[in-house]
Each structure stands twice: as structure tokens, then as C-alpha cells.
Amino acid sequence: MCRCNNKKGDNIPEAFKTDFSRQFEKLPCCGKKKNKKNKSGLYFDSDTILLSYYFDCGSDLDIRMNVIEPHTGTTIGWSKASSASYKGTEFIKWGGDNTGQGKEQIKIDVKKLKELNPDFDEVKIEMRAFWYGSACDKPVFVDAKHYKGGTPRKQGYHWEMDNPDNEKVIRSEKGNVVRHRNEIGQEKGDFVAVYHYDLKTGRIWFEMEEKKEPITDGDNTNNNNGNGTTTPTNETVDIIADTFEGYVDRGNSLHLSRAVNTPVVGTLYYNKNCNREGGQTLEVTLPADGSPADLSQLNNIWEYQCSIRFETEDPRVTNKQIELFWGGTNIRPEDMVDILIFGDYFGYNYGVSLSKETKGEPVEVTVTIDGVSKTGTLPVNGNLDGFTDFWQYQGQIKDVVITSNDPRLHQSRYEFNNFYFEAPIP
Fold first, then answer.
1. Looking at residue 181, what DSSP letter applies?
2. 8 A C-beta contact, residue 242 and residue 94
3. Cis peptide before 214 (omega within 30 of 0)
4. b/e string for 349-364 if b means 16 or more Cβ within 10 A?
5. In this structure, are residues 219 and 144 in contact, taking their beta carbons and an 8 Å threshold?
6. Where are the domains of the chain?
7. Does domain 3-207 have CATH number 2.60.60?
8. Which of 54, 64, 61, 62 minimizes the C-alpha distance to 11?
9. What CA–CA distance (Å, rounded) separates 384 from 398?
10. What is the mean pLDDT of residues 118-143?
11. pLDDT tens for residues 87-126?
């Protein structure tokens, strides 16, 4: 890679040229000899990386940043994840969905990543994209800004770095044209680049051509390469679980990291009681072409599970168990509810209900009336409960206690003291 080969009229976006001319270190001329012992690329000890797409035509480029190393099973972009985490700590953040023109960007906290695991060797991110609005035939360019020190400041869909001690910028010498729009079968997006940062040496480089790997079923299978000889290959693949802003019911999908010859079959375990073991199960087939698995059987109960994981015994899969969610915080605030109690002095309209309509399965509760308990469910539409028989035989009621471990409730215990009415006794 040398600057002497650059030609005028190479379709580089004007905003990109300004940024490039200000910050990019000038490359050597082609006439100079290169040290063949050194690997190509720049070297820099980074604390923060800003990785960007640039586009000055079309409208609403939607990015797909697949975090390959360190492996988190995360794809960042519109309808996908907005961040990537390791052991619950965020180290990558997306700047947001630019529905016009300009750029989209992620911020990588390298300093925090090294603190989380000093043994990590590399940051490797596959950069893909498709058009949601109008497409264009001009290249999409990428760059990576590396900073030592400084304070990142959010500005629109990207960050600016205030007061860095040092900085280094690398950009693609050529862009790649994104041709597809958001259509069925194109959700993966077109290849733009693969970004590499060696955490041990500080080496930085882009791959600008997509590698087409030979694919076979099984381990160590021989492939005929067309010239009478065979080449051993291994068909390995990862399971990818995509989420959006922490809510597994928004843009959720489970799919293979790339296409293989035959589908991968496994089991999805989901448990609303925050128990990683056991729970309900669903056999899931991950399509061989990398498209999302059919999870429609879960309907709208998906978002109210506390523990969700996928397991497979397929020998091709490197991560045979992937935890999609654990912790109970994937419920939207507007779907949280309370429990209400109804009754009058004549014993009519008595019962228990949710404070408003919510989603998912009925809420399981235990109702204790003056020391006598019964377990049942409350309908999610806010109607009165199914405890009618239990209530009407109580006669006079003083204290009511309702308990539940359902994560949609604001409280696990509701007490109604000195609640007194006469219910009709047959």
C-alpha cells in the first residue's frame, strides 16, 4: 500500500478527504524499498478506537458490525445490538442509526478490554452493510481513529476525542460498493471490510476483499480442488444471538455466523424463574444459509423469560452453548404492573387483578386470605382473577397477602390490611 498509486477522481467522500488530510499519516512513496520482514500496517498503542463507515450518496445505510474477536456472538447495527460486552461489562458502543448521509461509527474501549482480560490477542470486526433507503453505486469507505488518552464526546452519530495525548488514523485506500437493500435473504449485508487491531503489538490493518472459504460437512474432510488433488478443510461455525438494546423481543434472532452445507439442530432452554438449569425447552433448527431460526413458537412470552440459552451437540459448532439472556431486566418499563384487589360490602365484584394490561403468560400468584392460601393465575388483559370460589367462602375478610416471583411485577409481595367485607356464602 503506497500513496503514489492514488489517482484523482477516486470517489472519496469530501468529508472523508478533509478528515483524512488532517489526521492520516502520509504513506511512503512506491519507489522506496520496504522491509519485507515487517508486516504491513500501522502500529499504535491505543486506549480508544473509533471505527467508521463513510457514505455521501444513497440514504440510510444500515451497518452490520460482526464482533469476531474477542468472540461475543454480537452483531451491531440497526435492529441488532447497540453494544458488545464481556462478562457483563460494555466495551463497544454504537453511535446510532444515521438515516441520511455521512457516517456511522462504533467506539471501542481498548483500555477497558485489556483490563477485563489481558490475554485477549486481537480486536477483529467484520464490517458489512445494506441500504434501507435508496441505494447508490459509489463506494462506502471506512477508517479507524486510534487515540492514546483523551475524553470521547458524543456528537450526533459519532464521537469526537477531546485532548488526546496522541492519535493515529488508518483508512481504506479504496471503498467497496454496497449494492443490496434490506430484502429477505440480504439481512447479512454486503461486505465492506474487516478491521484488525493486534492488542499485543498495536498493529492495525484492514482487509478489503472478502475471503471465500471452502465449506464441507464434518471435520477434516477432503475437498477436490479441481486439479486432481484434495485439500483438507474443517467446517467450523459459530452460533450468533442478536439482540437490540438489551431487549430480546426486539430484533431478536438466532443464526449461524456463516453458511454451511446442512442445518444445525439444538435445544433452546427458557426459564422465567432466573434459573440457568431446567425450564421449558424448544427444539430449534438453525438454517444452513445463515438466516434466522424460526422462534415464532415462543410468541410474545420470549421477552418475559429470565434465563434463555441455546445448546447443540453439532461437532461443527465452536460455541456449543450460548447464553442469550440472564437476569430478568429484559422487560420494558411500560409492561411492568402491580396487583389490585376489589370488593364491596355486599360481596360483589370481589377479586384480584393486574393494574393494567401487559404481555406474555398469565401471572402466577399466591393469594392468602386470613391465613388460608391458594395459588392461581391473573390474566394479562387486566380482568379479574379465577379465585372466585376461594373468595366467596371466606365470609368476612380482614387481611389479604398476595405474593409472586413474576419479574413483571414491581413488588414480590402485596399486603391489603384491614380489608373487610361480607361475601355471600351459599
1. B
2. no
3. no
4. ebbbbbeeebbbeebe
5. no
6. 3-207, 240-326, 336-416
7. yes
8. 54
9. 20
10. 91
11. 888 999 999 999 889 999 999 999 999 999 999 999 999 9
